[in-house]
Specification:
Four copies of one chain form a homotetramer.
Chain A (H helix, E strand, L loop, with lengths): L10 E5 L3 H14 L9 E6 L1 H10 L7 E5 L15 H7 L1 E5 L2 E7 L4 E6 L2 E6 L5 E7 L2 E15 L7 H4 L11 E11 L6 E4 L4 E6 L6 E5 L2 E4 L1 E8 L5 E5 L5 H9 L3
Parallel strand pairs in A: 1-2, 2-3, 3-16
Antiparallel strand pairs in A: 4-16, 5-6, 5-15, 7-9, 7-13, 8-9, 8-12, 9-10, 10-11, 12-15, 13-14
Cofactor (chains A, B, C, D): a divalent metal cation
Function (chains A, B, C, D): Involved in the regulation of the intracellular balance of NAD and NADP, and is a key enzyme in the biosynthesis of NADP. Catalyzes specifically the phosphorylation on 2'-hydroxyl of the adenosine moiety of NAD to yield NADP.
EC number (chains A, B, C, D): 2.7.1.23
Chain lengths: 260, 260, 260, 260
């Protein structure tokens, strides 16, 4: 009831480089103050989805919730921008918890790289040569050989991002699923992808990696010359996004499915 | 081994009208006997998916499991046909439990009809006039007006049936989802449908039902001149399908997603 | 200007049954007169695309051009509705000439039926049983067996109608092509159809017509229990549609391709 | 009849680097001789479609016909490989003449580059930032702003290549059309592309080229940091491909449309 921890006063603001995000940052820090991220009860991100992804990545190890206000071109993860009533909105906001994907990449030097992805892990050709990929799910061979621009594994939160552009389905935010979606498949040319359990371990093996080099990308973190990529959901990490009531991520994704 | 309850001896066989299904029925009842359905420990269905659907509908109130063997043209729900080893196969079979959809239809005489669907509930125009439909999910208007041949709501088990023909996504058998998929949408012409929680209540309202009559169909049970159709999952009813090890419904649907 | 033949004075008006079309009919015939169709220099159709199709069919044997004004729900073939300036608009209108399809249907009684289609010839299942169809192009077998709701052959003019709802491509009005597009294909489930030369002769053979009856439909003219359907363009028939400058059919179809 | 110019004796062989192409080159030149390209009546290309494209580009200014034999992984443009009867096959081969696209690229330094494309001209993002493109056809703005991986313009011959991977339609080889197809469109997310007259001039303008750099690619010739790309068919250039009877390009493309 009372003395609820949600009497938020300590805010850390971040902003994208866009002039209108920077201007908002000036006005809002002047009005509501600015604490260091370690002390913050909430991080308020000013920009578009690009900034939100970046902020989520940067604060993945803390458990501090993040509230975005849209000052960018695409704001699927952002609330409407208003300067007034920020404290009230933060107190009334609804929380959505999402889990990232963990990507492990082995490159042609046999070095292993690791990164987390909130939206998607994608594999993409590095030259005009089409990629030739093999797909295993839970250790079982499922796609022997696919020639394509690439393939991606998307979370429900990411299903409205790159996955949507390559004609993958939008997933309800609470669906225990991952979308495995081909990018410009050439052979087999009509494969549309698969919906997998969120407990699935997906392995992508790169065939002919010298002739057909690919990059493995976790959101925007890229590793070149991958030869094998493993992807699974990192259930132990929970990212907290805050949304104005009636506009939480489940409603946003549901509404997005009925847009046309 | 010892007295496990799975020492099945009481089988009720059913068969489709196809000659090869009838011939199989003769040979198998001669060999394994034939008990009445009320006494059966398992029902063995001989035919294709059409017969399986029919058998599931007929025995929905019992809890007796059903094992199909393929003697038809489409056998997604059927095991391979062999005459030998039937008892051993039944004992080793894996069980998949699926829930049907409950459809409630109000027609133009204000009469209410009810039926269950294992695969899908579909709404379809009765004349060459396109249907004009409105869609609500959990009481909330989601699609104001769609001109189309129709729309369907599919279960995961049904996602590989009519839903697949109209370009809906295949759902893993355990995904707590329903697929809402338009059939030949004219306006909005690019809407691809939505994946909904399996707890969703879907209501389809028929606009201009006199000029644009539609039928509501639960699997093959049709009610004409529907004006309102309500659909939700009947969680209280669990249908038991038996599959040979390694070929249970989850694996079948997963494999189906990688077919091309 | 001077006595160009385009000094149109003899108009035959037709209208759909919709109240606003009927009201327009009253006002326009009062203002511009009404001649019999045989005497008309132009037919002015008041309604939507449905009326336009009907009018085109009714006057297919004359060579009188038709000018539509939109008083209906879908007006792709219609000009904007204004009551003033009609004579000037008719004189300045641009003409698009389109060719219909000729459909020849053989039914289960071996009776042959014939009809013309401006938009499309479609084959569609008559019961819940999926149709099983075979497709030949210019006498050559191209699709051995397709299980589906049906299939259609669309003209460029019709490519924005039913063809578009079933995900067929929009064709430029002058493209010498026909679109052959499956309707809810079940097997082969990923076939997307073909673009054929407008000189192609398409034959659809209905397999298992007793178990799986289908109708053959030319626009809205339906023949039930078809067992074989032949379709080709009737080049000898040219239908004249009139459009306000800058809004002729080629521009409309091009613009339609960039809608989303 | 007799002394037809088609008594081919002067062949120039080319081969890809693949071992089996190189081995074929050794055997065939030993058997049929090898003349310089300038003297050749026909060029025989040994490899896959990649080599064929390269060979067509290299000899675009001559009018010498090219006959391919498949020693590669994808051989849509290639005939079957046999070592015997080559002269007879060359004499009986059917000719398909295709026209390339001419691409003019202006880059961020205002330098203009030009290249020809047999399959397609594609525009593609150079970094993870989505491209933002504007599309004009014949000087008229048709797509104000599209966020995407890119876009392509394909010839009928190229419609079965990259265009097919990004879900563009296959075009009959003689259709006077070009396919304009989006690559992973993010906004407008459901635009499927357009079929344009082969006389169309397509202009792609790159928006925010500093933040969102793109490459313009004609088949495999790439120019980076394009800010404007113009594409139209080069009718004056006719490339001659030779195919065994019954397997010419029109038949190949028609057959490809019925594959699934």
């Amino acid at each position: 009831m009372h003395d609820r921890p949600s009497d938020i006063t300590k805010i850390h603001f971040v902003a994208s480089e866009a002039p209108e995000a920077q201007a908002a940052f000036e006005r809002l820090t002047a009005r509501y103050g600015q604490v260091r991220p370690e002390e913050a009860e909430v991080i308020v991100a000013l920009g578009g989805d690009g900034l939100m992804l970046q902020t989520l990545h940067q604060h993945m190890c803390h458990s501090v919730p993040i509230y975005g206000m849209n000052r960018g071109s695409i704001g699927f993860l952002m609330n409407e921008y208003h300067e007034d009533d920020l404290l009230e909105r933060l107190e009334q906001a609804e929380m959505s918890v999402i889990h990232p994907l963990r990507m492990k990449v082995r490159d042609r030097e046999s070095v292993t790289h690791e990164a987390l992805a909130i939206n998607e892990v994608s594999i993409f050709r590095l030259t005009y040569q089409a990629a030739k990929l093999r797909i295993l799910v839970d250790g079982q061979l499922r796609m022997d050989e696919m020639m394509c621009d690439g393939v991606l594994v998307a979370t429900p939160a990411g299903s409205t991002a790159y996955n949507l552009s390559v004609y993958g389905p939008i997933l309800p935010i609470n669906a225990p699923l991952l979308a495995l979606t081909p990018i410009s498949p050439f052979r087999p040319r009509r494969w549309r992808g698969a919906l997998l359990s969120n407990e699935a371990h997906v392995r992508i093996e790169v065939l002919e990696p010298e002739k057909r080099p690919v990059a493995a990308v976790a959101d925007h973190t890229e590793f070149r010359h991958a030869v094998r990529v493993d992807v699974h959901e990192a259930r132990s990490i929970g990212l907290k996004l805050m949304f104005d009531p009636g506009h939480a991520l489940d409603e946003r994704i549901l509404a997005e499915q009925f847009r046309y």
